[in-house]
Specification:
single chain; alpha/beta; Urease, subunit C, domain 1; 2 domains; eight-stranded mixed β-sheet; eight-stranded parallel β-sheet; 10 helices; 28% strand; globular
C-alpha cells in the first residue's frame, strides 16, 4: 500500500525549461499535485523526503536497453526482466523499453511473453512497450547483430508480438523491400518506426519520412555516413529539423566532438539519451555472450570478439547525462529534455518527463556527481 500524500522538500528541481532551488513537490495518489518555491509554507503529508538541496529531475526514460547484470531481455525469463528493471532503477530510470536483439521468431515471442508477465505488476522500472531492434536490418550494417537472424520486414511477425506485449518502437533498415509499407503500418498502429542498421541514402530517408518516419536509432552508429556527395542517414538526421535522434553518449560510440557537434546543430528537444546497454553493464570486464555472438569487455567497452565491432554499451543513463553536461555546458533545464521528456514525446507516453502538476510522480534525486540517491515511482521511494 503506497503513501496517499508525499512531500519531497528542499530540492534543486530541474524540469524542461524550468529550474528551482529549494523547491518542494507535493504528490497525491502518484501524481504531482503542486510545486512550491523555497519560501512557501508547505502542506502536511503522510511522508516527507528531504532532498537536502540535491537535484530532482523527472525519472529517466531509457528507450533502448538490451540488458544488464548478466541478463538480456532475449533470455526470455521473468527473472531477467526483473533483474534488468531493478538495476536500471539505480541509474534513475523509471521507465524503459525492453529492447530485443535480432534473433529467431521463437526467441522474440518468448521475450515478449516474459516482458508482458512483468508489465502486469512491475516491481521496479515501468515497461510500457517493447523496442524491436531488428530483425529487419541491413546485412551491410550488422553491428553486433547475428547475420543468420536478420530478415526482410514482416508485418505479421510484428503484429503477433504486439498482441503479446505492446510494441512501442521498431528499429529497421528503411531501404529494405517492404520497409516503407511497414513504416506506414506501424504509424497506423501507433508504433514509432526508427531508422537503424541501415545503408540508406538521403532519398531513401525522404521516402521513409513521407510514410511517417521521424526517429533514428543510436544515431551515427551502424548507419550510412555523411559524405559531401551523399549525405546518407547521418546527414539526413542532422538536416531534418523534425527528426528525433537517439544518442549513446559514452564518448565511445560518439566521440566527444561529435556529441558537441550534434548538440550545436540540433535543437535539444530532438535529442534523446539512451544507453543501448548490454548484459555486461553493471558487470566487470570479461567475456560475455550477446545473442549467439561472443563479446569482450575491456575498460567498460564492449566489442565483438570476432571483428572488434562495438557491441552495445555499458554506460549508465546518469553517466550519459553527466558526460553531455560536461561536454556542452548547456543548462540542466535544457539537457533534462534529453533524459525523459523527448522520449515521452516521440513515443506518445502521457504525463511523463516534467515536474508539473498533473504529471506522474516518477522522479530521480541526484547528487552533485549525478549519482542517484533516491528514485520515486508514482511518488513511492524505490531505492
Amino acid at each position: 500500500m503506497g503513501f496517499m500524500t508525499q512531500l519531497i522538500k528542499n530540492g534543486h528541481l530541474v524540469s524542461p525549461d524550468f529550474e528551482l532551488h529549494g523547491g518542494s513537490i507535493e504528490i497525491e495518489k502518484g501524481f504531482i499535485k503542486m510545486v512550491y518555491p523555497a519560501d512557501a509554507i508547505l502542506p502536511e503529508a503522510d511522508s516527507v523526503f528531504d532532498a537536502q538541496g540535491q537535484m530532482v529531475m523527472p525519472g529517466f526514460i531509457d528507450i533502448h536497453i538490451h540488458g544488464t547484470k548478466g541478463f538480456d531481455f532475449t533470455h526470455g525469463t521473468l527473472e531477467a526482466v526483473e533483474a534488468i528493471a531493478e538495476a536500471k532503477l539505480k541509474e534513475g530510470v523509471t521507465t524503459l523499453l525492453p529492447t530485443t536483439l535480432s534473433t529467431s521468431p521463437e526467441k522474440l515471442t518468448t521475450a515478449a511473453t516474459a516482458v508482458a508477465a512483468y508489465a502486469k505488476t512491475p516491481r521496479f522500472a515501468k515497461t510500457p512497450g517493447l523496442h524491436l531492434e531488428g530483425p529487419f536490418i541491413s546485412p551491410k550494417q550488422l553491428g553486433a547483430m547475428s547475420p543468420s537472424d536478420i530478415r526482410l520486414p514482416d508485418l505479421a511477425e510484428v503484429r503477433a508480438l504486439h498482441a503479446i506485449m505492446p510494441v512501442a518502437l521498431v528499429s529497421l533498415a528503411i531501404e529494405l523491400d517492404g520497409a516503407l509499407e511497414m513504416i506506414r503500418e506501424l504509424v497506423a498502429m501507433g508504433i514509432t518506426p526508427s531508422a537503424a542498421h541501415s545503408a540508406a541514402t538521403a532519398a531513401d530517408y525522404r521516402a521513409a519520412k513521407a510514410e511517417g518516419l521521424r526517429h533514428f536509432t543510436h544515431f551515427c552508429n551502424q548507419m550510412s555516413t555523411l559524405h559531401h556527395r551523399e549525405i546518407g542517414l547521418v546527414g539526413s538526421g542532422l538536416l531534418d529539423e523534425e527528426a528525433m535522434l537517439e544518442l549513446i553518449c559514452d564518448k565511445i560510440h560518439l566521440c566527444p566532438e561529435m556529441i558537441q557537434l550534434i548538440f550545436k546543430i540540433k535543437e535539444t528537444d530532438r535529442l534523446m539519451l539512451i544507453t543501448d546497454s548490454v548484459l555486461a553493464s553493471w558487470m566487470d570486464d570479461g567475456e560475455y555472450t550477446l545473442g549467439n555472438l561472443s563479446i569482450q569487455v575491456e575498460n567498460g567497452v564492449a566489442r565483438l570478439a570476432s571483428n572488434g565491432a562495438l557491441a552495445g554499451s555499458t554506460i549508465r543513463l546518469n553517466q550519459a547525462l553527466k558526460n553531455v553536461h560536461e561536454l556542452t555546458g548547456f543548462p540542466l533545464s535544457t539537457l533534462v529534455k534529453t533524459t525523459a521528456w523527448n522520449q515521452a514525446q516521440s513515443l506518445g507516453l502521457p504525463n511523463l518527463g516534467k515536474i508539473e502538476p498533473g504529471y506522474t510522480a516518477d522522479l530521480v534525486v541526484l547528487d552533485a556527481n549525478f549519482v542517484p540517491t533516491e528514485v520515486f515511482i508514482n511518488g513511492e521511494p524505490r531505492l
